[in-house]
Amino acid sequence: MNAKTLLVLGTSSDAGKSSVVTAICKILSEKYKVAPFKAQNMSLNSWVSKDGKEISFAQVIQAWAAGAEPIPEMNPVVLKPKGDSISQVIVLGEHYADRTAGNYYESIDEMFKILNRALSKLEENFDVIVMEGAGGAAEINLYDRDIVNIGTARLTKAPIILVGDIERGGVFASLYGTIALLPEDVRQNVKGFVINKFRGDPAILKPGLDQLEKMTGIPVLGVLPYFKLRIPSEDSMSFHEKAGSGAIPEEKKGRGQKTGLEIAVIQLPKISHFNDFEVLESEALVRYVQLDDCLKNKNTNECPDLILLPGSGTPLQDLNALKESGMMEQILELRKEYNCPVIGVGEGYQLLGKTLTDPSGNKVAGFGLLECDTVYEKEEGYSEKPERVTVVIDSKSKVNAGILKEVSGMTVDGFLAHSGKTTTRSPVFGNDGAVSADGMVLGTFTHGLFDNKQFRKALLRYLAARKGIQYVEEEEFTVQDGFAELAAVFEKNVDMKAIYKIMELK
Questions:
Q1: What positions does the domain CobQ/CobB/MinD/ParA nucleotide binding occupy (predicted)?
Q2: Which end of the chain is more exposed for a tag (fewer CB within 10 A), N or C?
C-alpha cells in the first residue's frame, strides 16, 4: 500500500481501540489526509451517508475526528443484531443478507475482495489509514474467518499497536497472552503496547512495564489515564456504562442539570441509535431506564419532563417486552396523570401507534398514542432505503400546540433508517411522523433530530416553561472540542514520536 497504515488491536472488547484510533486520527489530520477503517463492526448504532449508504457510527466519529467525510469504504461490513443469533449484514453501505452467527458470509474470499476494494479506494484518496480491530485479537477459534483482526493484519501487513484495558485487571497477562497466541506473521508486526484506563500514579506500573518489554521485546508506548470521553458513544458497550434509573454518576454531577430538566430514555432490549439522545445529556439529566425499573425518579418520585422511546432492532419483540415488564403501563399512566410529553424516534415512533402487523399478518396493539399503523412486510432488510433528509416541520395546519408549538416551520436535518411501512393521517416532517391532537406525543423516523440545535433549544425552552422554571442554556461544547480534548490527553501520555516512526511518517 502506498498510504501509510496503522492497525490498532485490543486484548478484549472495550479495551479502548476506538478511542485510540479516534485520537490518532485527530492528531495526524493536522498534517495528513487521514481515513479510519474497520473491516467489520457489530453495532445497532449506524449512520447514513449523503448517498444513502449505511455505516457504523464508530467509524463516522473517527472520520469526523480526521476531518473526513464518512464513506462506507471506511467500514465495509456492518453487522446489526436482530435477535435469535441473527444479524443483518450490510456490505459497503447496502443490505446484503440476514445471517446466523458464525455464518455471515457465503465466501470469505469474496469478503476479502470487498475489503481490498474498500482499502484501494481509501488509498487513492488519503495519505494515512488508521485501522481498528474488533473484540480480542487472539480469538484462536476464529482465525480462519477473522477478517477484522488477523485478516486485516495479513491483508495490509500494517504495523500494529496492541491496547490493553487495565481496569479489567490482569492487563500484563492479557497483553502477553495475546502476543503468545497471535500467528507468527502477525506477531512480528506488533510494534508497541498501550495500556488504557489506568487510575493512579503510572510510576507504580514501571516494574511491570519493564518486565513486559523484556519478555516480549515490544515497547510500551504509553499509559492512558481513566478519562471520561466527551465524544459520542459508538456502540452498546458504551451504552451499558450509562447511568441507570435515578443514578447520577460522579462524572455527571454538576453537568447537564442547570436546566433543572429530567429526561427518561427507555432502555429497550434491542435499542438502536441511542446516540440520538446523547446531545441532550449536556443540557438535562438524562436517565436511561431499564424496563423493570421505575419511570419516576427514585430519589424525588417526580415524573420526568420528557419520555423518549428509541429505535429497536426487533420492534415487535421489544413491544412485547414493554408490555410484559409493565413499562408500557407506566408510560401510559404518566401520560394520563401528568400529560407527560412522549417522543418516539425510529421504531420507537411505530410502537406509539395503534397497531403493528408482522410479516405473517398477525396484528398486535401498540401504545395507541398516535394515529398510525405499521406493517412489517419482510423479515430482512429495510422496507425503505436509508436516506438523508432535510425537511420542514409542518404543524400549522394540524397541531400548533404542545411540543410543536415553538418549532413549526423549522427546517431539520437527519436520516431515515427503519423497518416496516407506517401510515399516518397527520405527518409532521414532510411525509414522515405523527403528532397527537394535543401536541404532547410526537413520532418521527428522523434520526439525528436533536442534533438540530434550533429544534433542541426550542424543545428544552418549552419543557422548562411547562415546568415553571427558567431555561438556562449550557455553554456549547462541540464534538470537535471533544476530539481536541481526547487528542491532548493522548499526546500527553503516549509517545507520538514513536508512532510517527512506526508508521514511517515524518
A1: 7-227
A2: C
